[in-house]
Design brief:
Strands 5-3-6-2-7-8 form a 6-stranded parallel sheet, sandwiched between helices. The protein has one domain: Rossmann fold. Helix 1 runs parallel beside helix 11. It contains 11 helices and 8 strands. The chain is an alpha/beta fold.
């Protein structure tokens, strides 16, 4: 763990400071009108399933909830001070907790009354966001991109805050081509600029095992790198940071899967556990 912390600290020292944040900035933001779901499919997620899958942000209290609340605050500060609203979430390799982190963070963001959140499952080789919510196999991003299914036919409102989910849909192998297609670029542009008070969180594939993240990087404003305690190596963190240099800013690095509960990560002084 010491080597991982050293790698993250090196990234922090090589990055520019976050800058001042105005305490009155939040007060100046007006709450968006309530979401009205017409064709968007509404589902009810079962509490037992959410707890079993460690979707802890859906509850008022419990293990690690405060960690995600802290992460939300830090992410919002960085997004707002840079006027960003499209955040990619990735990890160096598989099974390091990026999808669960993306989901819990998106839920926490959607609990804020000042914005809505669109969560996109863009890990198209292994789409799994719907399973964490206890949803059956459903149409999603691949259907929108490859079959030209209307967007409103694949969006899902899981009944949690101001959150809307765009599931991944069926798994495909040529995911890089799909994520860099004109239809995908148009989707990101539309969601980025049409709603001033919307944050888009994109769950991306692992950085070191897929070309998708680097191919898609120009479409996001920044990237959150998830590191798994006891899994992610110092070399993997350094290689990931080097690959992203010049592609997209790294908003911070989140330590996931901490057995001792929420722990501070020096690159962002944030945490997600689960």
């Amino acid at each position: 763990m010491e080597e991982l912390s050293l790698a993250i600290e090196r990234h922090k020292q090589s990055s520019h400071g976050a800058g001042a944040y105005s305490a009155g900035h939040d007060n100046a933001r007006q709450a968006p009108p309530p979401i009205v779901y017409t064709r968007t499919r509404m589902v009810e997620c079962r509490e037992a399933v959410l707890r079993r899958n460690r979707v802890v942000a859906a509850f008022d209290r419990g293990p690690f909830v405060e960690g995600y609340q802290l992460l939300r605050t830090q992410v919002l500060h960085r997004l707002r001070e840079n006027r960003w609203n499209v955040l990619g979430v990735t990890s160096p390799r598989i099974q390091e907790g990026k999808t669960l982190t993306a989901l819990n963070l998106a839920i926490m963001l959607a609990m804020e009354t000042t914005q809505t959140v669109l969560l996109i499952d863009a890990d198209l080789k292994r789409p799994s966001m719907h399973r964490l919510l206890g949803l059956d196999e459903c149409r999603g991003l691949t259907d929108y991109l490859l079959e030209e299914t209307p967007l409103e036919d694949v969006l899902v409102h899981p009944g949690i805050g101001r959150l809307v989910l765009l599931p991944g849909g069926r798994a495909i192998q040529r995911s890089s081509e799909a994520l860099t297609s004109p239809r995908m670029s148009a989707l990101i542009r539309e969601t980025k600029h049409r709603y001033q008070a919307r944050i888009v969180v994109v769950d991306l594939p692992p950085l070191l095992t897929h070309a998708d993240v680097l191919a898609f990087a120009p479409s996001v404003d920044a990237v959150l790198l998830v590191a798994g305690e006891g899994m992610t190596t110092r070399h993997d963190v350094e290689e990931s940071i080097a690959l992203m240099r010049g592609a997209a800013p790294i908003l911070g690095t989140v330590l996931n899967q901490s057995e001792s509960g929420p722990r501070s990560v020096r690159a962002m002084r944030g945490v997600a556990a689960g």
